[in-house]
Structures are given as C-alpha cells and as structure tokens.
Amino acid sequence: MTVAAATTPEALAGSAQDGFAARAVEVTKVYGQGDARVVALDRLTLGIPKGAYTAIMGPSGSGKSTLMHCLAGLDSVTAGEVYVGDVELGRLNDKRLTRLRRDRIGFVFQAFNLVPTLTAGENITLPLDIAGTRPDRAWLDTVIDTIGLRDRLSHRPAELSGGQQQRLACARALATRPQIIFADEPTGNLDSRSGAEVLAFLRRSVREMGQTVVMVTHDPVAAGYADLVIFLSDGRIAGQLAEPTAERVLERLRRRPAGGTQDPDPAERAADGPRSAPPGGSQ
Ligand SMILES: Nc1ncnc2c1ncn2[C@@H]1O[C@H](COP(=O)(O)OP(=O)(O)OP(=O)(O)O)[C@@H](O)[C@H]1O
Ligand SMILES: [Mg+2]
Fold first, then answer.
1. pTM for this predicted structure
2. Cα distance between residue 182 and residue 67, in whole Å
3. Which among 64, 203, 213, 283 is placed 20 to 30 Å from 171, CA to CA?
4. pLDDT grade, residue 133 (50/70/90)?
5. Helix H or strand E encompassing 140
6. 206 pLDDT higher than 90
C-alpha cells in the first residue's frame, strides 16, 4: 500500500480532510521559559493517513514523543491546531477532551502500564469498564485471537513474557476500537523476537481490522513494518519515506544523519507528490 502524509499546510489543505485520522496544523510546542525554554515542535504540519501504519523516527530530543502526546490530546500545544478526525482538540473543555481520548484514541506506552492485580482479560476490557461501555464481543474476540493470548487471559501481567505484555497493552488500546492508536517505542524494551510479535500484531490491526496506527521507533527494522516513515528533526518534519524497508530506512538515515534539518524540499516533494520517482531509482 502506498500512502503519503501531508507535511505542509498547502498539501494538507489541498487534500481530502477525511483521508486523515489526525492532523497537526502548524503546531508549535514550547516547554519552559527563559534559559530553560525549549521549542520541542516548531510549526510542524502533519496529516496522518487513515487506515495506515505510520512510523515516526528522528534523533533523541527531536520531538517525537511530544508530537504523539499533542496528537493524542495528552498535552496542549503552544500554537497551531490539532485535529482528531474533524474535531479540533483546542476547542474542547477538559471533560470533552477526556471523553474523546477515552472513546477515540488508544495509547501504547513504552512502560506497558498494565494493572498488575488484574488478569490479562480484565486488563483488555478495563477501558470499556471505565467508560461504562458494553464490550463488542465479536470485536474483542477478533482482538484476542489476533494477539494470540486466548489461553493466557486468566494470567496476570507478571506471569506473561515481555512480548506478551506488550501485545496485551496493544490489545487494550484496541479494545475500544479507537480511530487511531499511538504507540511510543512499543518494542523498545523487547528482544527482537517479542518485538517482531508486537510489530506484526500492529500491522495486522491495520491490514485486517482497518486501524490507524502511529508508532515512534528508533529501529529501522521496526519502521520496515510500517506503510510510511516520517522523519523528524529539531521539531520539524525532515522528510518521509513510503513503503519503507529496513534497508531503505537505514540508507535514508545514513544519507541524512541526525540533525540534518535543511533538506525538506526534495524529500517533501517526492513524498507529497507521487508523480516524482526517486532519483536513480536505486532500491
Ligand atoms: N516536560 C518537558 N519539559 C521541558 N522540556 C521537555 C519536556 N518534555 C520534553 N522536553 C524537551 O523537548 C524536546 C523534545 O522532547 P521529546 O520527548 O519529544 O523527544 P523525543 O524525540 O521523543 O526523544 P527520545 O527519542 O529521546 O524519546 C527535548 O529537547 C526535551 O528535552
Ligand atoms: Mg520520546
């Protein structure tokens, strides 16, 4: 599947808005003030394509987690607008924002955030219990079969492997059938085999269940599971790569190592307009 993100206000405005699961429009996020002032996001524009698996990469401190938190309504922006579907988050009061997060967004944190005293099955349905929503049994069955933990539902998280716990965290994020799932380095703590299980699960949730997934990763192999990679640098979009493979991601990172910011144009055009083929056409 070839998908592209919109990474300029013009590209975003020129696209059908319902093709994006979430949008950041010229978003700036500043932390602190005076000497401690940090511009974590710098007029960043990004439309996340619906029904696709998007990876976000970039050097440490480039704003990846900040972007995820702002898109998920877990943090406010200093300037600009964030939309989930067609709802602008800045217009919501706390109560409506909490409800939107609960009903429309799934978040997978690096530290699984599972409840140790609940069983795996109870952890999965926890968001539904909190929302007072009756579970959609057929959907839950699909999720549980996809994570492959049906025979572990009565186990507590401590009785599961790291990969199983992380898959459980993904299943919990999927339980409410959110419009979009954000996963911040979901495989960061896992060995490569457990990591591969989680990545394959996220990809299946996109391919077979029509989910939209956005995942931060430092790992080119992990990024290779995605449909699209977005590169961040100094709080800005530094480019994107469609149909990534681990090799192509590595090559891109080698060509423009961490910190190279002033390259957006060719990469952007190549990515925003499917017309232009990559020069040389290698790989
Ligand atoms: N709560 C905060 N207060 C002040 N500065 C912050 C805060 N959170 C993040 N920052 C700063 O904002 C910048 C972006 O941070 P962010 O966590 O988004 O980076 P990241 O790309 O996720 O990095 P990593 O790969 O290390 O997780 C960094 O310079 C960081 O120090
Ligand atoms: Mg981070």
1. 0.85
2. 10
3. 64
4. confident
5. helix 137-147
6. yes
**Where do the domains of the chain lie?**
50-64+94-263
Summarised one tens digit per residue, pLDDT across range 157-175 is 999 988 889 889 988 998 8
Give the residue, by CA position, lying nearest to ligand 1 atom 19: 61
Q: 272 pLDDT exceeds 60? A: no
For ligand 1, whether the C-beta of 38 sits within 6 Å is yes
The answer to whether the CB of 146 is under 6 A from ligand 1 is no
At CB < 8 A and 24+ separation, what contacts does 252-260 make? 253/57, 253/220, 256/231, 258/58, 258/59, 258/62, 258/233, 259/59, 259/233, 259/234, 260/233
Q: Which CATH superfamily is domain 50-64+94-263 in?
A: P-loop containing nucleotide triphosphate hydrolases (3.40.50.300)
Indicate which ligand has the atom closest to the C-alpha of 59: 1
Residue 23 has pLDDT above 70, yes or no: yes
Ligand 2 centre from 65 Cα, in Å?
4
- Which atom, in ligand 1's list, is nearest to the CA of 185? 27
Summarize the confidence of residues 73-81 as an average pLDDT: 96
Q: Is 51 a pocket residue for ligand 1 (Cβ < 6 Å)?
A: no
Structure-model confidence comparison of residues 150 and 263, the more confident one: 150
